[in-house]
Amino acid sequence: MLSIEPTGAVLGATVHGLDLTRPLADADFAVVLRALGEHGVLRIPGQRIEARDLRDFSRRFGSIQGSVTGKFHHRDVPEVGILSNVVENGEPIGIADAGQDWHTDMSYTATKGFVNVLYAVKVPERDGRSLGDTLFANMHAAYEDLPAEIKARLAGMTARHDFNVFWENMRTRPGSARAPLTPEQRAKRPPAVHPVFMTHPITGRTVLYCNPGYAERILELPEAESREMLDFLFAHQLQAKYQYAHSWTVGDVLIWDHLGTLHNAIPDYGPQEERLMLRCQVMAESVFDPGFRHQWLRAA
């Protein structure tokens, strides 16, 4: 029987009673969807699944985004990406996700990202402790705690999010093997503009939708004021009281809500300490559709 066990922290819950090798019942999906909005990060432990199972589960939340480079996806199930530091025959088999700093996936697209779904195949360990934790920050709580004058000032304002800013930041770090995006690749990911404050489609509450990985300018403010305000927002949203750390175990499937959280994977493991995750990135067309919300959130 499906049950939701909250962590008791600012984010996170464990989902018990799911076997993702089997189709997800409609009633169970409705419960998971509402729990995702409430808790932001959901862990489904003890899974032994194939790439197609991850794809099929992820599709319940919406359409799956492809890769801008066309690399590092599962050979037989291209909707599933590979996050890994594993090297075979001198070539990496996946893209590294650790060390990217705080961000929200796909805020750089006109259609926002909704969820990441990761399956832990290999988790590095040292001295009996798992490495490569993923940190999360709660953007419902971050908005609620903003000073009233900041809420009033920024109400209705928008921010520009740019994929290339993030890519260049990662590419120029020591040891990076990333190549610059080609003009064709950049054209596939033009900057996108989103409200700084957004109504969350599941909870109906306001969240701070502005992250240090991609947000580069508040368009309604002069450039200097925009930079000052972004620096304030980034410092505010990353306070320890809003953060939650997930420690990985092989067999974990982790779902997190991009609309209500930020995340940051910790690179505390070496190249010989192998990490391998399968990932689906789901876009937010469905969850913003009133018919989708009426069907699934009413049922929950």
TrEMBL record:
Name the Gene Ontology biological process terms. Answer: sulfur compound metabolic process
The TauD/TfdA-like domain covers 5-280
Q: Which UniProt keywords apply?
A: Dioxygenase, Iron, Metal-binding, Oxidoreductase
Q: Which InterPro entries match?
A: AtsK-like (IPR051323), TauD-like_sf (IPR042098), TauD/TfdA-like (IPR003819)
Domain of life from the UniProt record: Bacteria
Q: Which GO terms describe its molecular function?
A: metal ion binding; taurine dioxygenase activity
Q: Which GO terms describe its cellular component?
A: cytoplasm
Pfam families in the record: TauD
Q: What family is this protein classified in?
A: Belongs to the TfdA dioxygenase family.
Query: What name has this protein been given in UniProt?
Result: TauD/TfdA family dioxygenase
Q: Which organism is it from?
A: Dankookia rubra
Q: What is the lineage of its organism?
A: Bacteria, Pseudomonadati, Pseudomonadota, Alphaproteobacteria, Acetobacterales
